[in-house]
Every structure is written in C-alpha cells, then in structure tokens.
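User: For a reading group we're discussing how well predicted structures match intuition. Take Cytochrome c-type biogenesis protein CcmH/NrfG. Before you show the prediction, I'll give you the sequence so everyone sees exactly what went in.
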Amino acid sequence: MTGWIIAFALALSLMLALVVVGRIPRNTWEIAAAVLLLGLAGYAWQGNPGLAGAPRHAAALAPDKFDEDMAERRRGLAERYGPAGQWLLLSDGLGRQGKTKEAANVLLSGLRQSPEDPNLWLGLGNALVAHADGVVSPGADFAYRRAIGIDPQAPGPRYFYGLALARAGQLQAAKEIWTPLVQSAPEGSGIKAELQFAIARIDILLATKASGQ
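Assistant: Thanks. Here is the predicted 3D structure of Cytochrome c-type biogenesis protein CcmH/NrfG, as structure tokens, for the group to look at:
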C-alpha cells in the first residue's frame, strides 16, 4: 500500500512542478497527465508496490546487475544455438558476474571467427551498453548498425538498438529505429503491441517537450 501512496504522491508532485515551475501551456496539461498515467499503468503492470526496499549500500557492494529479462528477450529474437549461441551464452555468464568488459571481449573473439554473424554484433552492442552503464557509445552504435546491415529483416537488432537509445534518453532516434520494425511486425504479435505503446509514449513526451519550448 505504501508503494502506491509514494507512486501517486510522486506523480502529483511532478504534475504540480510542470504546471507551477515549468509553466507548461494549459492546453498541454492533459498530455502531461496522460504521460504520468501511462507511467502509473506501467508501475501497476510490472512493479511490485508491496516489495520491501533494499538498503542502498547493499546494491553498491553487489556486482553490476545483469539484465536477465533483456538476455531472454534477445534469445527469443535471435539465435539460441550454434556458434553464435555458444559465444552469447558465455558472454551472458560473465555479465551475470558483473564482468562487463570480459563479456564484450568474448563476443569480439566470436566475431573474429564469424564476422558476418548479426547475432554476435547484436550481443556486442548490448554488452557495450551494459559496460558503459547505459550509454550508447560509438562502439555500441556501430555494433547495432552492423547487425542491422547484415540482416535488415531480423527484429532483434532494431528492437535492442531502439531500446538502448530510449533508455539513454534519445527518444526521437529510438522512434526512427522502431517504426520500420512496427510496420513489418505481424498483426497481433506481442512485439508489435509493445512497440506501438512505446512509440505512443515517445510521441506524447516529445509533444510535451515541444510545447514547453
């Protein structure tokens, strides 16, 4: 219950800050409120309001958290088996230990053997982003684009490239990467619905930002 109180209080405080401090135009209040409601909907869908908080110092002492959900999504959209799958499996294992540099180096070794494997380039992009704490470095950008160039029809590279850009705050770039994927995804598929929702949120955020300028 406390989680919900905090979530609503933060949402209300942010809305007041946008109106009073940010002085957003009155005709954009509904858009801003919609963005906050979408955030609360995501919290209700994926969050756990009743989960107790963990001490901050404990997180600092632990190794970098491995994004298990991202790895599973990649395995669902890319190769699970074969040479690429073996390199990716080894890289994932190092990533779980917080050894992000070693995780990327493993994939570089795999690419020396299979330089035209889009799954290894995709994995390298993800590993470099993790190593840079979420920053899409030039190396990660090149790896994602190389994966797309090798297999333009594969959903994995565009999905994760857009996700990395969105998490880094590059919303317009993420939308441009995701839009072709949404257009080519089968009707009724989970990835199409997920990205349509994500792009709708990006449009609202971009419109709000533009209105406040």
